Amino acid sequence: MPRTTIFTALLIGIVAISQGGCALFPASYQKTRYFDLGSPPSLAAGIDVDSVSMLGPYKRRMAYRKSDYELLFDDYNSWTLSPERMLEDYLVRALGGDKDSDTKIKVDILRFELDLAKNEAVLTVEYALKGRVKRSTFAARLSEPPPLGFAKAMGTNAAALAKEIAKHANVSRAY
After folding, report:
1. Euclidean distance between CA atoms 89 and 105, whole angstroms
2. Which among 13-17, 53-57, 159-163 has the top mean pLDDT?
3. Which residues make Cβ contacts (< 8 Å) with residue 139, sequence separation at least 6?
4. CA 151/CA 83 separation, integer angstroms
């Protein structure tokens, strides 16, 4: 067999394998998993959650902060709802207010992510309660690997936020 024929056959074989590689070695399927913030504490503070909005790029996919300038989004692990809807539901159940309540709160989510360098779930919010605006950051270390550890730590942050809001509402009522 001449060299050119062997080379041509080899080249055709390589091209066939590379084109059919997906059929020979299919990518493994990974099912998307969904997480939420867990059950809130029942604070019965009588505070109506007027609205929760989000100013960051966070949607339902989990966000991981790799550096000050890089944010990664997880294609296989997601929140059950968008962070603002999830936190709103959590706060409504924790604070136990109704629409007729005199005490109303508006919350803006500024940060809702996992800081990979510090291994912490970070929740930064700005909220308005009785004419006062407060910015708070909550950071909870992961007790187990993400994504479950991320969800549990963010639930801890949401509980701390609910308790802080209830505390500030009670202080405001004293005046």
Report:
1. 13
2. 159-163
3. 115, 118, 120, 121, 122, 123, 157
4. 11
The token duo for 109 is 């989510």
Q: By percentage, how much of the chain surpasses pLDDT 90?
A: 67
The more confidently predicted of residues 11 and 45 is 45
Residues pairing with 120 in the sheet = 115, 141
Closest CA to 73 of 83, 59, 53: 59
Question: Which domains are seen in the chain, by residue range?
Answer: 32-174 (3.40.50.10610)
In the numeric block, the tokens 């989000």 are attached to 54
Q: Is the pTM of this model over 0.85?
A: no
Residue 31 and residue 172: Cα distance in Å, rounded?
A: 47
Note whether 107 and 90 are within 8 A (CB). no
What's the CA gap between 37 and 152, in Å, rounded?
7
Q: What is the pLDDT of residues 139-165, one digit of tens each?
A: 999 999 999 999 999 999 999 999 999
Cα–Cα dist 99/80, whole Å: 25
Q: What is the model's pLDDT at position 175? A: 42
Residue type at position 158 = A
- Residue where the block lists tokens 């109303």: 104
- CA–CA distance, 94 with 21 (Å, rounded to integer): 53
